[in-house]
């Protein structure tokens, strides 16, 4: 995934709680429902509560490698869903 595309997707994820029923909002909400419970918690902590990596790892009792694997999984899944919804070019 190109750096610019990843940055755009992460920006949309950080803005998720502020959106007003946009197409992105619908895609993100649908993807959150599909995530395992701990990844949903990670999503909320990072993108809505804006907690630090250290706080998240401590609260979820996970290693940094797991944290980064889950973040990458979330961003990649969002990119695929956004491409299917024609919000971004694959």
Question: What topology emerges from the helices and strands here?
Answer:
Layout (H helix, E strand, L loop, with lengths): L2 H12 L8 H12 L2 H12 L4 H8 L3 H21 L6
Helix pairs in contact: 1-5, 2-5
> What distance separates the N and C termini?
9 Å
Quote the average pLDDT: 90
The amount of helix comes to over 70%
Molecular shape: globular
Q: H/E order of the elements?
A: HHHHH
As a whole number of angstroms, the C-alpha radius of gyration is 13 Å
Mind describing the biggest β-sheet? none
Q: Total number of β-strand segments? A: 0
Structural class: mainly alpha
Name the beta content range. under 5%
- Spans where pLDDT lies below 50 across 5 or more residues: none
Number of helical segments with 4 or more residues: 5
Description:
The relative contact order is 0.18. This protein has helices at residues 3-14, 23-34, 37-48, 53-60, 64-84. The protein is an all-alpha fold and 90 residues long. α1 (3-14) crosses α5 (64-84) and α2 packs across α5.
What labels describe this entry?
90 residues; globular; 5 helices; mainly alpha
Concise account of the structure shown:
The chain is an all-alpha fold. The protein has helices at residues 3-14, 23-34, 37-48, 53-60, 64-84.
